[in-house]
Write a structure and sequence with these properties.
The protein is 38% helix and 21% strand. It contains 11 helices and 12 strands. The strands form 2 sheets. It has a 6-stranded mixed beta sheet, with helices on both faces. Helix 7 links the parallel strand 8 and strand 9. The mean pLDDT is 97. The structure holds 2'-monophosphoadenosine-5'-diphosphate.
Amino acid sequence: MTQKYAVFGNPIAQSKSPIIHKMFAQQSQQDIEYSRKIASKENFEQSLRDFFTDPDAMGCNITAPFKEQAAAWVNELSAAAKMVGAVNTIIKQADGSFLGDTTDGIGLVQDLLRVGVKIKGTRILLLGAGGAARGVLQPLLALEPEMLIIANRTESKAQALASLFVQDNIVGCSLSQVSKLNGSVELIINATSSSLSAELPSIEDSILQACTDVYDMSYADQPTVFMQHANQLGIEQTYDGLGMLVGQAAQSFYLWRGVRPIVEPVIEALRAGL
Ligand code: ATR
């Protein structure tokens, strides 16, 4: 019996999830169907219920703007989803109840490790304090960086995020304060949405010049403006978020199917089609 999966969002036509999961299914010879579902704020929950009326519907992904609504809808949340307050993966469990999880943070961490960026013992600067930043804090901290600095245009949001953690190797500050902190950072992760509007988060060039790796969670057919800026300042190791996108999907696939997909050929195929 073909088991069914879907991604819910609005807009949804642009979502690459169906093609990614189709490739995962092909490489692991899994018989699944994966579709896109458009919803509105008002009918989102009814759309989920309708989808799961089909006994072959086993799970779904949730994308913007429904991740918080999905967290409220499920019967149970993973520890990670509870912390983030958002769900990007719903799993129908054996007893018919629904578990909500979030795989974005694992997707980022796995992609960093895949491209050879070290996290343990590293000083990391995370730019942004919105949903994207929040989702990656716990998985990054789990790999024991020396320091995780959250810097945000609106300082209070960075401080609020840092204060969610008891350990003292996480701090929050404004973008302009980063240069006043002691010591340079080795890895800078752009979790702001600035690349989407081709803007640069305003941090001093000296901070970029002193780092080794730059990772932008956004991606496009060209390197993002942030990556280009880092390249111009002499940083050679810059990465975009395409691998993170495939990584979060791989973790969802694993949660549903118990099989770990091989991400490299999927990233390459998507890159070729950008
Ligand atoms: P997402 O879900 O993508 O994280 P979000 O929750 O709206 O979206 O958060 C957007 C983040 O990008 C915020 O940290 C925002 O900074 P503010 O909190 O100060 O608004 C940040 N951001 C967006 N555009 C930016 C820009 N041009 N420069 C710096 N930060 C920017």
